[in-house]
Amino acid sequence: MAQNSAGIKLYYGTSDTGSTKPITWTEIPDVTAIPDLGGEPNMLNVTPLSETVQHRYIPGLKDPGGALAYTVLMTPVMLTATDAASTVPASPAKIAFAVEFPGELDCHYWYYGVGVNVTPGETEVDAPITSTFYTSVESSILKAAGPVNA
Hints:
Blueprint: E1 9-15, E2 25-28, E3 31-33, E4 40-45, E5 57-63, E6 67-73, H1 76-85, E7 94-101, E8 107-112, E9 130-136, E10 142-145
Antiparallel strand pairs: 1-2, 1-7, 3-6, 4-5, 6-9, 7-8, 8-10
């Protein structure tokens, strides 16, 4: 059965060692859209000279595009959380981000990165003020079973 988007949450946490998954995660509230977490792989052309009909490819490195962009509502609690997630800790500690999928999927995906402070986005008459919370991607995006704070 397909999963709907209800209940998906974004979190940040700090890994004291910079090499282990954070133990404690804090929710970043008021997220209204998440980016594609997969990352498109570069396709490497491996067509031999003897080929006469079609190019052949193998997947290369994945490229998340440099940053993941989360759409957020401009609220004081969101700003507090994203400001904290944008503060780089002293080495060797690292910030990590996790997207939690409840229900049927019952898993989360996490990665190391750094947040960028949120500023107000474009708006218009009679509309909520939204913006984008960007994070860098500094590791592979890993899948883990169950909720983030299990």
